[in-house]
Amino acid sequence: RKFGTRWVQRRQGLKMDQKSIIRTYFSCINKKENDKAFALLSEDLEWWIIGKTPVSGVNDKRKIQLGFKMLQRRFSSFEFILHELTEEEDRVSVTAESRAKHNNGRDYNN
User: Fold this and answer.
1) Which end of the chain is more exposed for a tag (fewer CB within 10 A), N or C?
2) Does this model's pTM top 0.85?
């Protein structure tokens, strides 16, 4: 399965376009460089995750930060693979896949 994410990033003065910010964000998350990743998020970020999980729905910056830290604790490895990015006005939609290894050794793919 894949998930969709809607970003709202309203930072002024950034030298990167929206898609570059998102690619950099996930690259940092994949390397567990959380401080670098979270610095890219605007305070008024709205992140929508489809599905019926505890993290589904609209999330703010704080919830996103907590969620990624939780993933890194629950899995010995966790990687996001970005497939499609679509930018429209101040929004970017992302189709991504995640692969991970549970702390108990089981593989995870979503």
Assistant:
1) N
2) no
